[in-house]
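Data deposition worksheet. Section B asks for the primary sequence of the deposited chain exactly as it was used as input, without tags or linkers unless they were present during the calculation. Section C holds the resulting structure in token form. Section D is free text for depositor observations; keep each observation to a single sentence. Incomplete worksheets are returned to the depositor.
Section A, Depositor: J.P.
Section B:
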Amino acid sequence: MNATYAQVAEYAGWLNLTDAGLVRVLGADRLRFLQGQTTNDLRDLREGQGVYTAFCTPTGQLLSNGYVLEAEDGFLLVLPAETWGEISARLSEAIILDDVVLMPLQEGMGLLSVQGGAADEVLEEVGLDAPPHEPLSHHTRLWQKAEIRLVRNDRTGFGGVDLLVPYAVMEELQTALVATACLPIDDALATVLRYEAGIPQAGVDWGERTLAAEMGAPFIRRHISYTKGCYVGQEVLMRIHARGHTNRTWVPLQVQGEILPPRGTPLAAPDRADVGWITGAVRSPALGGAILAWGFVRNEYTAPDTRLQVATKPHAEATVLPNAPRPPKASGASSSCLQSW
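Section C:
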């Protein structure tokens, strides 16, 4: 049995993210090294804090999002399943004379995320206390003689906590959560929840040609620093920032009709045929059951309430929304405790 939307909104469910990448970064040069590889500023991080960040190509294309935690005289890098292998390989190749050690952790532990309006209460019921409410604040707790790291991370807009759990107790913890009526969230519901929160997925909502700055203002605020100095892709991102915009932006749309437009469906305007395309669409309870889509749209057509034509059969109308229906809680500007993936 899986969680329903109402159960997550009013209580909680859990996401199985055990395919995510978990990499410990150690060594005397770890700050200088990782600071030069990632888009956000790590200098102000202290024990128990974290920061959302991204990795780019030298020409500014987005390779991965994720987050970095300051933990026990090192960094803990948490990356999506779709990208962690490529990022780990890139970081390994970049170590030349640096005193840096990369230690993959996913053979011994996995990521589970409890999400929902009562996530903290569920954790308390199974014997774990949630970390403070600042995004990416974290601490470790013993559970069944195993050390679990709890990280404040809202993946749904309802609030939630990531848990880095040793596999020795993973099944036992999942059983304990189910015993409290906190049920697993399946892939279909996870997609609805992340789209309502405006959280993109690698390989679905962006690809190898997507510039990081095209992901929109909320993503930029959470993931990119324009004051930290040099890092891979910084020159291009700074040039875009100085110019003021990209040519297109990932935006939410409400689509009329009954047909969910497939990924890649073209968008048009009365005066232009090639306005953009859709990256994904769901039925959204937050919009009263209407179709919520996300897509890349040329900036001349991204103003809220702009009407576009969706190339489904029959054609449907889409309206640009001002923001995600239910953005992650307490997200804010780029700093050491801020909200994505």
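Section D:
Residues 5-197 form a domain with the Gyrase A; domain 2 fold (CATH 3.30.1360.120).
The mean pLDDT is 94.
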